[in-house]
Structure formats: C-alpha cells, structure tokens
Amino acid sequence: MPGCSPRSWGWPRPPLLALASRAAFQLPQPLVQTVTTNVPGPQFPLFIRGRQMVEAHPYVPIGDNVQIAVAIFSYSGRISFGITADSSAAPDLDVLAQGIGRGLTELEAQPAATRPAGARPPARSGPRGRHALGRERRANRI
Are 83 and 140 in contact (CB under 8 A)? Predict the structure, then answer.
C-alpha cells in the first residue's frame, strides 16, 4: 500500500535509528537513580517438561547511576517483588521493603465492596513481609 512505510512518512532509516538509540544510551543520566518495572505475566500455570512453574522471582540489574531497582511480576494470580540495590547508596533498604509489605497488607485488608467488580486481593509469592523481600535484597545486593 503506497504511503504506509516509515520511509514515506519521513522517518529515518533503521540503521540511523539504531545508531541514534545507542548514542542516547551512552549519555550519562544523572537524574535517574531508581527504576521500577511492572511486568504482567501469564495468569495461568506454565509447565516445563511436565513440571509446573510455581513461582517467579523478578530481577532488574542496576548500573551506571541507577542505585535501586524494583521489579514487580505477576504470575498465575500471584504478585512477586524483587529489589536490587547498591548497598552503599541505599543502606536503609529495609524501609522500602517494609513499606511494600505494609502496602500489600493494606490492599489485602481492603473491603471487597470497594474493589472493582470481580477483583480479588493479590496473593503474595513466598513468605510475607520483611523476610521474603529481605532475602531477595541480600541475594541481589552488590
């Protein structure tokens, strides 16, 4: 169909876009220190060689100026959080982990009448509270 290709719209060619994106990511970004990502996963069980995957542990690497990364992943009706941090830049990371735990507790305690129709409170992956988040934090600490 004429006029439907990116070139006809005046967009740069793919090699030029690739070069520009690489150059943009080479520039320092001093204002970005924290990254949070929410990845919706499948809401049904997955199987590998006949065995069911029961949990997923999200992970976001840190680098450059990013000092704290929080990954949120949903899978089969459960929500998992993973916190990765530079321990020298965030010595009080337990405060963040406890805050996430308190927020989830508040969501679970929310009356069903105030939830959207058909919504259930999210199930947590693994043990509750500080211990689950703290264990991941220590495992991912640089």
Answer: yes
